[in-house]
Amino acid sequence: MTPEFILFHYDEIGLKGGNRSYFENKLKQNIKAAIPKGSFTSLRTVQGRLVGKLSERGQKHISGILSNMENIFGLAYCAPASRCPQNTDAICDQAFALLKEEKFSTFRITARRSGSDIPFSTQKMNEDVGAFIVDKLKKKVKLKNPDLACFIDMFHKHAYLYTEKTSGPGGLPVGVSGKAMCMLSGGIDSPLAAFYAMKRGARISLVHFHSIPYTNSASVDKVREITEVLGKYQKGIQLYTVPLGPIQKLIRTETDEKFRVLLYRRFMIRITEALAKKEKAKAVYTGEVLGQVASQTLENMAVVEAAASLPMLRPLIGLDKREIVDRTKRIGTFDISIQPDQDCCSLFVPKHPATKARLKDVEKEEAVLDVDTLVQEAIEGAETEII
Fold first, then answer.
1. What is the C-alpha to C-alpha distance for residues 49 and 352, in angstroms, rounded to an integer?
2. Are 220 and 361 spatial neighbours (Cβ–Cβ below 8 Å)?
């Protein structure tokens, strides 16, 4: 039986009270943007869920639509469903039509209702439909771990029946939390930070710093690949690639080597914030993890953050490497990130970097540099593309 509808269920959006319609509308926009145009004849909010009525085109591409929904933040799950009137006989007939095409030995019926106007209990519906299927198909009811589950959602004068659910990633729809800049190194951590930014509803732009011609272009190539993967969750990501090499060369010759990486990062923050103003972004995300490398001690992160005026957000701060690796494998960036490249922060790295730097010492070293001019030159040398 070809389904006529897709039900879209969400979790967190349902807790948003008076602002819920804003979140629901953004979710609708993101769903429509992820599927072929004209897949639905209608997509509307009905009693705490979205209901999409499939067009003929949508019915032909339903497997692709469901696959794309796995990447839509804000969704708990979606289900291709058939619809019938909200009475026992019609629901029994619809369940029979749905299940007779399936191969199974055991099954269960799981009915749910929304609203107090439905004149029968879900338990009674489970029993009546279950008995009907037993009689018609000679199958056995099994409440725990059945071969097949038939779900019946009753709301707004209709019943919707389905046997298949496609899980979504949860979170909030991309765009409801405003814009943010994400610093993307090409390593393992920063793509996951970008993923979490989108999961909390931020629409992101990415900034990658490279040291070409002092290094090769491998890191830029990697970042483009990573951005393509992240693009499953947000269509049309703006990627900035910024030359940091001239600044690094000057820092190497003019400042104490133990502060080099911290000075690099302070410039990266300033440049990212300048780009954020162009994008009207309200925060900067990084993939920093507490204690992972010398620049990520509490003292050094404080020194770097002192150069910032926007909020610095670090969603990975308390994760360990195993957790990060596992999660990046799931989102599909890990295999790209581990490809060898020459990271800009590995250029001119001192043998003994400061691990507990003091802000006044770093600012003293920085005072010999024309910070504003160097930031402006880096921005003028930046390249941008939409992936």
1. 56
2. no
d(C-alpha 130, C-alpha 362), whole Å: 72
Measured between its terminal Cα atoms, the distance across the chain in Å is 38
The residue whose two tokens read 């992240």 is 230
- Is residue 206 within 8 A of residue 48, CB to CB? The reply is no
User: Would you tell me which CATH number, out of the four given (2.40.50.140, 3.30.2130.30, 1.10.1610.10, 2.30.130.40), belongs to the domain 5-167?
Assistant: 3.30.2130.30
pLDDT at 92 over 70: yes
Contact 172, 146 (CB under 8 A): no
The stretch 7-15 carries a mean pLDDT of 90
Longest dimension (CA), the chain: 87
Contact 153, 159 (CB under 8 A): yes
Per-residue pLDDT tens for 147-203? 999 999 999 889 999 999 999 999 999 999 999 999 999 899 999 999 999 999 999
Nearest to 287 by CA among 381, 206, 200, 387: 206
Q: What digits encode the pLDDT tens for the residues 207-241? A: 999 998 888 888 999 999 999 999 999 999 999 99
Q: Which CATH number fits domain 179-386: 3.30.465.10, 1.20.1340.10, 3.40.50.620, 3.30.565.10?
A: 3.40.50.620
Q: Whole-prediction pTM value?
A: 0.93
Greater model confidence, 47 or 367: 367
**Joined tokens for residue 340:** 């060898």
CB-based contact 111:132 (threshold 8 Å) = no
Local structure of residue 12 (DSSP, 8 states): G
- Looking at residue 98, its amino acid is L
Which tokens hold the place of 223?
Answer: 């970042």
